[in-house]
TrEMBL record:
Residues 108-137 are annotated as: Disordered. This is Competence protein CoiA-like family protein. It comes from the Bacteria. The lineage of its organism: Bacteria, Pseudomonadati, Pseudomonadota, Gammaproteobacteria, Alteromonadales.
């Protein structure tokens, strides 16, 4: 995409060429980049800066309508569509779905293992939420009185479900299917996050645009696309909203190694899904989504193809 519409000022939207946009000062780029739309189908768009190795700056979108003239099919889009078809079929054929957090993403095959989560320096994270009875992040135990009614229930009956009717899926295909509009986020299918607890899919999968702090920090599977990171790559900023951040400083080294990320540009426009909790910062001006137990197996990022 060579053009994008900026709706930062909704009363006076402005169309930028990529050449004009990249000439804005740094402050204006950071201010406007989360308010970009595709000029043809009006779906959320992103801006990627020029890279040090000569790749040009560009606009793009992971949400193009199929008939959008700006939509250019690629191998990545084909994978997303196949993932959406596969997940939609599982919704039809299965009585339940088990998330396999250990499943190796196809894009990671052949890489050296990243630093195990248990070896990451576990700094004391600041959690400004009231110190009420909360979910145990270390033991991943969901207490029945800390989760909204209907959101998650204890599932002692998993053994009663015929295993042939319990599908399994990894984070990569779940994310790609959501990006391509699968029915997963609207489904009533039971989804197991482990052998003990299950959720209705429509209560579990939450797009960043709809993320709200949950009672006592009850977790969800949050997903969407990334706009950019801060200069030190300590925070990730979703493109779907401007009042939310994802802290990654505590496991930054392992994450960057795992994803082979050298530059903050690599986060721009990437898809992301993570199991975590959402809460307000101290001043209640910004929402934070914190990765559950700082466990990288519960986070997946799909970088854009170059």
């Amino acid at each position: 995409m060579l053009d994008a519409i900026c709706i930062y000022d909704e009363a006076s939207p402005e169309t930028y060429t990529v050449f004009k946009f990249q000439k804005l000062n740094e402050a204006d780029i950071e201010k406007y980049r989360q308010s970009l739309l595709c000029p043809a189908c009006k779906q959320k768009a992103y801006f990627r800066k020029a890279s040090k190795d000569g790749r040009a700056a560009c606009f793009g979108s992971r949400y193009h309508h199929a008939d959008c003239k700006e939509f250019k099919p690629s191998k990545a889009k084909a994978r997303e569509e196949l993932a959406a078809i596969e997940v939609n079929q599982q919704l039809v054929d299965s009585d339940a779905l088990m998330i396999d957090f250990s499943r190796q993403p196809l894009s990671f095959q052949g890489r050296k293992p990243s630093i195990p989560p248990n070896d990451i320096d576990k700094k004391a994270s600041v959690d400004p939420t009231p110190k009420r009875k909360q979910i145990s992040a270390d033991n991943d135990v969901l207490l029945s009185d800390t989760v909204e009614v209907g959101a998650c229930v204890k599932a002692d009956d998993l053994s009663e479900v015929p295993m042939s009717r319990v599908a399994t899926q990894g984070l990569e295909k779940l994310l790609l299917s959501l990006l391509r509009g699968s029915e997963l986020a609207k489904s009533d299918l039971w989804v197991y996050t482990d052998k003990k607890y299950r959720w209705r899919a429509k209560n579990l999968f939450v797009n960043f645009a709809d993320a709200e702090p949950t009672e006592n920090g009850a977790p969800r599977m949050y997903w969407g696309t990334l706009s950019h990171s801060d200069k030190k790559m300590h925070w990730l900023n979703p493109a779907d909203c401007s009042d939310l951040g994802i802290p990654i400083e505590d496991y930054q080294e392992a994450l960057l190694t795992n994803l082979n990320i050298q530059d903050r540009r690599d986060f721009e426009g990437a898809g992301i899904i993570l199991f975590g909790k959402c809460f307000w910062n101290k001043d209640k001006t910004r929402k934070i989504i914190q990765l559950w137990s700082k466990d990288l197996s519960r986070l997946f990022i799909a970088k854009l193809e170059d």
